[in-house]
Design goal:
Layout lengths: L2 E6 L6 H11 L2 E6 L2 H7 L6 E5 L3 H10 L3 H9 L4 E5 H4 L2 E4 L13 E7 L5 H4 L9 E5 L26 E5 L1 E2 L1 E2 L4 H9 L3 E7 L2 E9 L2 E4 L7 H12 L9 H5 L15 E10 L5 E4 L7 E3 L5 E3 L5 H10 L4 E6 L12 H12 L4 E4 L5 E2 L6 E2 L1 H11 L3 E4 L1 H12 L9 H9 L4 E12 L10 E2 L13 E8 L4 E6 H11 L3 E4 L13 H8 L6 E3 L6 H8 L7 E4 L1 H4 L5 H11 L13
Helix pairs in contact: 1-8, 10-11, 13-15, 17-19
Bound molecules: ligand 1PR.
The site of ligand 1PR has 32 residues, from strand 14, strand 22, helix 13 and strand 23.
C-alpha cells in the first residue's frame, strides 16, 4: 500500500531531489506542508515528516516564522513523533548562526549553540601555508559513536548511517565542537540528545543528531548516492538502528592517505550538451572547444557521443561523485519554458542521487517570446526546481568581473553571482572559467598577475618567459582583457562558492590537467577549485590531486564518453595504486 510522507516546504532550494529519493526507495507518495494551517490539517495522519533545508539559515528560519511553523514543529518533536531533518533542517534545531547577525529570528533552540563558519585558516592547512576551502563541499565519513566514544545507547536511532560509508556535505556553517561548547552539549545529552560527528580539517562538527524520534543530518542523504538512499529508506521503513559495526570504524587502512580536510577528492563527469545538426540534443566533445568533426565526404558535423540523460545515469552508477551538464550553445536565446536543459535535469534527477550542476545561459534573460526581462535568479530557480543543486555561470561571470573592476571593486548586489548566492547560498554558485594561455615578455606588459615560466621548453614562441591566462566567453569565441585569476578573485568576493577551471589549451588533449593554471588560482582563492580539461588517464587525476595546493575535485569528459575508462576505474586506481581516499558507492546495495 502506498504510504504518505509529509515534507515541510518553505520554498528553499532543491526539494525535487528529496521527493525523487523518497519515491526511489519504496511505494511512497509525498505531500507538502507549507504553513501552520496545512500542518494542522495533516497532523493526525503524519507518521513520517521530513524537514529539509538548504541555503541561508536566516532566510530559512524567517520562512518558518512567517508561516507559523515553528510551534507546530516543536510540538511534533516534543511529542516523540518521527521526523528527519536535513542540512539547514538540522541547523534549525540549534539557537542561531553566525550566518545571520540579526537575531530577530532564531532557530528552534533545542541546543543552545551558535553555528559558526568553518575557518579557512585551519591549523592543519596553515602548517603547509595553505587555506582550507570554504564552503566545505564533498564526501566525508560520519563517526557514529557516542560522545564518550562508547557504543550508542540502544534507543538512539541513526537509521543506517554507517561509519564505512561516505556522505555528501555542502555547507559553510556548522555546529562546531570546541571547549566552549562542551558544557552545552553535555547539558543537551542529559536532556536526551545524542550527537555524532565528522571532522573538516581540524574542526570537529555535529554531523547528525538523535532525540526521541527526531533524527537530523548535516549531510544530504538524498545526494549521498546509494548510501544516502539507504538512510532515507531505513527512516521511512523505521528500521531504527544502524547496522554499525564499530570494529570497522577502528580498522584504519594505514596505507590510505586522507586529504588534509578529510573529504575524498571528488571525481566529476561532465557532459557538454547541444543540439546536433539534426536538432537532437546530444552530448558532444572535441578539443580546444571545437566539437565538429570533418567527414571524408566533406561534411562537418557536431560529434554525437550519446544521449545526455542516459550517459549521466551511467556515470552515476559508475560512481561519479557529481554530474555536470553544460549547455554549450546557450548564447542562443530560447524561450524560457523551452530551455532544453530543464527537461534533461528533470529526467536525470529521477535516477541520479549525487549533486547535479547545470551551466550555460545563466544570466538575466529576455524571453524572446514575451519580450519580458527575467532576472538570472529566476532562471536559476527554474533549474533548481528541476533538480539542479548548483548553477555554473560562464560568460556572465566575465561581464560581472569586468564591471566590478571598472567600478573600483564595487558590489552592486544585482548581478547573477550576487543574487543567486544571496538567495540559494554560495555553494549553489559555480563560476566556469574558460581561459587560454597568453605569453608576455615581462610582467610590466600587462596589468594582470603573471606566472614566471621556469621550464625553457614551455617558453612562448618568441622566447617569452611569462604568461597569464586570458579569459574568454561564449565558449571561447570572445577573448577578454581579463586574467583567470582576476576573474576568480572578483567572483569569490561577490559570493561565488566554487570555481570550475577549464583550460582551452588542454581541453580534449588527454595530456593531463593544466597544473600551472590550477596552482595559480588555487593558491589565491578560498573557495573549492575543480580541475577541468585534459584528463586522459587515471594517473592524471593522481597528479592533480597530489599537487601541493590541494585541488578539491577533478572533472573528466572525453575519457569517460569514449569509454576508455569508467569513473570507478579512476577511483580504484586512486585507492589501490595511489593510496588515496575515495568514495566507492558500488559496494553499497540499496
Ligand atoms: O557562458 O555561462 O553560457 O556557459 C557556457 C558553458 O559551456 C561554459 O561553462 C563553457 O565552459 C562551456 N562551453 C562552451 N563552449 C564549449 C565547447 O566545448 N565548445 N565546453 C564549452 C566547455 C569544457 C569542459 C570540458 C573539459 C573536459 N567544456 O566542461 O568538459 O574541458 O574535457 P576533457 O576531459 O575531454 O579534456 P555560459
Amino acid at each position: 500500500m502506498t504510504k504518505t510522507v509529509y515534507v515541510i516546504d518553505v520554498k528553499s532550494g532543491n526539494l525535487q531531489s528529496l521527493i525523487n529519493a523518497i519515491k526511489k526507495v519504496g511505494d511512497f507518495e509525498v505531500k507538502l506542508i507549507g504553513n501552520a494551517e496545512e500542518f494542522k490539517q495533516a497532523e493526525s495522519q503524519i507518521e513520517k515528516l521530513i524537514f529539509p533545508g538548504v541555503g541561508n539559515f536566516a532566510h530559512f528560519v524567517k520562512q518558518l516564522h512567517d508561516r507559523d511553523l515553528v510551534e507546530p514543529i516543536k510540538a511534533y518533536i516534543d511529542a516523540g513523533k518521527s521526523l528527519m531533518g536535513v542540512c539547514v533542517g538540522l541547523q534549525t534545531l540549534f539557537d542561531s548562526s553566525e550566518e545571520s547577525e540579526d537575531l530577530t529570528y532564531r532557530g528552534l533552540g533545542y541546543i543552545d549553540m551558535k553555528l559558526k563558519k568553518f575557518n579557512t585558516e585551519d591549523k592543519k592547512f596553515a602548517e603547509k601555508s595553505l587555506r582550507k576551502s570554504v564552503p566545505a563541499i564533498g564526501w566525508n565519513n560520519v563517526d557514529v559513536i557516542n560522545v564518550d566514544g562508547k557504543e550508542l545507547p540502544q534507543d538512539k536511532a541513526y537509521y543506517g548511517i554507517n561509519n564505512k560509508n561516505k556522505y555528501y556535505f555542502v555547507h559553510s556553517y556548522a555546529a562546531i565542537v570546541d571547549e566552549e561548547t562542551e558544557e552545552v552539549l553535555d547539558k543537551a545529552t542529559q536532556n536526551g540528545w545524542n550527537f555524532c560527528y565528522a571532522t573538516y580539517g581540524s574542526e570537529k562538527f555535529i554531523a547528525a543528531v538523535s532525540y526521541k524520534n527526531c533524527f537530523a543530518t548535516q549531510f544530504h542523504p538524498e545526494k549521498s548516492g546509494i548510501a544516502g538512499l539507504k538512510v532515507i529508506k531505513s527512516f521511512l521503513e523505521d528500521t531504527k538502528y544502524s547496522e554499525v559495526n564499530h570494529k570497522d570504524f577502528q580498522v584504519v587502512d594505514t596505507k590510505i592517505q586522507k586529504s588534509l580536510d578529510g573529504l575524498t577528492r571528488r571525481i566529476i563527469a561532465c557532459l557538454d550538451v547541444r543540439a546536433n545538426d539534426q536538432g537532437d540534443l546530444v552530448v558532444t566533445k572535441g578539443d580546444q572547444y571545437n566539437v565538429r568533426q570533418s567527414g571524408d565526404d566533406g561534411s562537418n558535423n557536431v560529434r554525437n557521443l550519446g544521449k545526455p540523460v542516459e550517459l549521466a545515469t551511467r556515470y552515476f552508477y559508475q560512481g561519479a561523485d557529481e554530474v555536470t551538464f553544460l549547455n554549450i550553445t546557450s548564447f542562443r536565446d530560447s524561450p524560457l519554458e523551452d530551455l532544453p536543459m530543464l527537461e534533461v535535469l528533470r529526467l536525470a534527477a529521477k535516477n541520479i542521487f549525487v549533486p547535479l550542476t547545470v551551466g550555460g545561459g545563466i544570466k538575466d534573460m529576455t524571453d524572446p517570446k514575451t519580450g519580458k526581462l527575467v532576472p538570472a535568479v529566476e532562471v536559476a530557480d527554474l533549474y533548481f526546481r528541476s533538480g539542479a543543486d548548483k548553477v555554473s555561470i560562464g560568460s556572465d561571470a566575465v561581464t560581472i568581473a569586468e564591471n566590478y573592476y571598472a567600478n573600483g571593486k564595487t558590489k552592486t548586489g544585482t548581478t547573477s553571482v550576487e543574487t543567486i548566492s544571496a538567495t540559494f547560498g554560495a555553494q549553489a554558485v559555480v563560476i566556469s572559467v574558460d581561459p587560454k594561455r597568453k605569453y608576455v615578455a615581462s610582467p610590466q606588459d600587462t596589468t594582470m598577475e603573471t606566472i614566471k615560466i621556469t621550464d625553457a621548453s614551455k617558453f612562448g614562441p618568441n622566447g617569452e618567459q611569462y604568461c597569464y591566462y586570458q579569459v574568454t566567453s561564449q565558449g571561447g569565441r570572445k577573448v577578454h582583457e581579463l586574467g583567470a585569476l582576476e576573474l576568480c578573485l572578483a567572483c569569490e568576493a561577490l559570493g561565488a562558492g566554487e570555481v570550475l577551471l577549464n583550460s582551452i589549451d588542454h581541453d580534449g588533449s588527454n595530456k593531463g590537467y593544466n597544473l600551472e593554471l590550477l596552482r595559480q588560482i588555487k593558491t589565491r582563492v578560498s573557495i573549492p577549485v575543480i580541475a577541468s580539461s585534459g584528463a586522459g588517464k587515471p594517473e592524471h587525476f593522481e597528479e592533480v590531486f597530489k599537487m601541493d595546493c590541494g585541488i578539491d575535485a577533478a572533472l573528466g569528459a572525453g575519457l569517460f564518453h569514449r569509454e576508455e575508462y569508467k569513473v570507478n576505474d579512476v577511483k580504484r586506481f586512486l585507492l589501490n595504486d595511489a593510496n588515496m581516499d575515495v568514495r566507492l558507492d558500488d559496494e553499497v546495495e540499496l
